[in-house]
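Re: [help] complex structure
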Amino acid sequence: MPDVLSASMVVEFPFTRSLGPVQSAFLTGLRERTVLGVRTTAGTVLVPPVEYDPRTAEEIRDLVEVAATGTVTTWAWNPAPRRGQPLATPFAWVLVRLDGADTALLHALDAPGPEAVRTGLRVRVRWAADRTGAITDIACFEPDEGSTPGHRARPHSGEFAGEAVTGIVAPARLDYTYTPGRAQSAYLAALAEHRVVGERCPRCRKVYVPPRGACPTCGVATAERVEVGPRGTVTTFCVVNIKAKNAMNDAIEVPYVYAHIALDGADLPLHGRIGGIPYDRVRMGLRVEPVWPGPGAGRHPDHYRPTGEPDADYDTYKELL
Amino acid sequence: MPKEPVAVVGIGQTRHTAARRDVSLAGLVREAARRALDDAELTWADVDAVVIGKAPDFFEGVMMPELYLADALGAVGKPLLRVHTAGSVGGSTALVAANLVAARVRRTVLTVAFEKQSESNAMWGLSLPVPFQQPLLAGAGGFFAPHVRAYMRRSGAPAAIGSLVAYKDRRNALKNPYAHLHEHDITLEKVQASPMLWDPIRYSETCPSSDGACAMVLTDRAGAARAPRPPAWVHGGAMRSEPTLFAGKDCVSPRAGKDCAADVYRQAGVTDPRRQIDAVEMYVPFSWYEPMWLENLGFAAEGEGWKLTEAGVTELDGDLPVNMSGGVLSTNPIGASGMIRFAEAALQVRGQAGEHQVPGARTALGHAYGGGSQFFSMWLVGTEPPAT
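Output below.
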């Protein structure tokens, strides 16, 4: 398939989380080098703790302290750590049942190689030097063959010196490879030549601009290319007086006019910014044409400006609203 | 075999507010679910299945939150379904739960919808930087404002209609202790003097960002017979969808919305919604959508919806009260907003709506929409069980 575009797309955001009482105590405890669990109605100790009993659904608040030593219950070797993982060198993902707990905690084990890891291995917490009240306050686990199990969970108030951790920031990032597909790629290639080319549905004969490669109402592929515009009619619009919290929009000064523009020959409007006219003189029916971007400024029209033609009659575009 | 009649026997919601920093997501949904169970005088063990809904995962950045919330909702060992239809999701979620009962797959279903907007970023979640696309996004208000202008042109509605809706809904919210905005000093002049954000939409004609959850307990005829308080009976429910943009789309009055309403009315035997329905709780995130939906839902002829608003028909003491709770304009935890509409309709016919009760309401419509006017979900509830 010729000239199908592709680009990387990164989706990234620092999410905040309110912790609620149990996670708050757990993470505050980690900051103070203390691992807390919670005791269920049936007496089982869950580490990490949860707010509600998984068996009975009852609210559980009976916090207990468990040991910083434990036993590996299962593991998987990670030969190629990725960005953001606990260790930069190869390590084992481990489930560790801490002494005093009945469930296992997922974390990383610093070990020289997979031959050094086994189910049943005794391990201990390696605390991070700088602790902030996060799961990363446990830097990782390390082998601790000399330790012995047998520690019993002890009741704990969940209170610590210093301010309790009540929220965390959890950055999330997704890396995609995005391709707009055949139809959009052809549309973008034509835009680079200052032409607007849509596609006509073979069944309903409607012309889609931008083309999608398929007609959303008929559900059939579209291939017949149709050049439209470049002139068109403002069918409706709004005046944007506040900036969107979107870095890609920051260059556009407010107020600006965000308009639906039906290019001549297209069967639905596309969206564009109107310029070359005071914002408060833009009106439905205004005839406009694209102003193409300067070199290196992308392929889409920078904005649309009035052509000077008389306004289109409402009846000519009312079906496109 | 006819469908099993479905009854709403428990309703719970949080006191919606800008930020609930005192609870986790689990704590938030738990609060609404617990209140719904308390209202029904049921325990976790009485629930056979749980159906939950929220807006896209990107909003709070918790992937598949339904898994993490199973403990909090007593869902361990039971079916747990998650529904996903953008802003209409709260309504769709309730309908999926209702269908489980109607089909006699489950007898008693807990349904919950939520959003913690303080810990999410809806604008970011809806404005991902997709390569090769124009960076023109102006937020939800910028998306819907041109459709409002198109409505004004098509109907010839006076420019003040939007402010009348906002003034009404914000006053209704003062009677609803669960509403987020309680603007005790609200006046029509203040609404009309508020800044124009996306002309023709003013600041006071837009919804807030809220943290909140809503839950309902739905059950069969036998469950309703045991209920401690009057149930609301489901007389009709439907969902419809259509693409956000297509040639021939009517962005002012989408076909999917009309078809969805027609389906609900057919199920319920409603032939004249304006006369046969006592109260309407509809999804109005921007004030002008009240007259637009009045037409789309068949309460007024095309171009006439604004006349009902202008004449005071949609006021709490009017002939067809709309958004008695204060509506989305006063409370908007996005994922929960649809369910709050459905719950308000049920509260009204149960006679449990407190200060914002429409006296004698026997039939009420709950409505939600989402995406780019792309998903619709509605239900009609009544005081009496449906004829079978």
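Chain A touches chain B through 68 residues (CB under 8 Å).
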